[in-house]
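hey m, so remember when u said the tokens were messed up on ur end? i reran from scratch. heres the input so u can diff it against urs
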Amino acid sequence: MTMQPLRLADFAAVLCVACIAPVALPSHGAIFKCAEPSTGKVKYQDAPCEEGVAQSTVRPPPPAPAQPAPARQPQPGKSKTMTPQQAADAEAAALGAKQAYEQFIDALQRRDRDAAFDALTPDYRRRFEPIYQALFESGKPLDASTLGVPRGISIIGDSLAEMKVSRRSADGTEKGFSILMMRDRNGKWYIDGM
């Protein structure tokens, strides 16, 4: 007996037979309960039961409500508050970052290119030097309020800070922005992003 290659028409006929046969599918979220009449065994499954087995559809119980996360217990020996020295260090860091930003604004207003560029990290300076250079060469007066008024500072670790500034737009609305700052090993703050 020689095997004939399967033709597309034969394949389509097989598909049509499978499509015509009714298949009972459970509703969304339900499963089939299959009870074997001879042994009394019960199975739960996604697919319909085999022929000759009693079948019913079962809906699983709803999931239990999510329990709130347990409150974190303080670890022995660790305090949630800063020591006086840590508080003084954080305050000095915030003051240093704010002063670095204000010195940058003053340098821009005086059109002191070297002092303004000295307040930027080398990477930020390389990326934005053409913009600041055009600002210096324009000769237009600079309004410091358009650059932003410091509203808050977050110190991140020993060498990073994020300063929040607000600027008033042309339509009078006040918008907030972030200025990223970095501190070098000598304790000097630089602007790294605006």
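this time it looks ok to me. The chain is about 30% helix and 25% strand. if urs says something different then somethings off w ur setup not the seq
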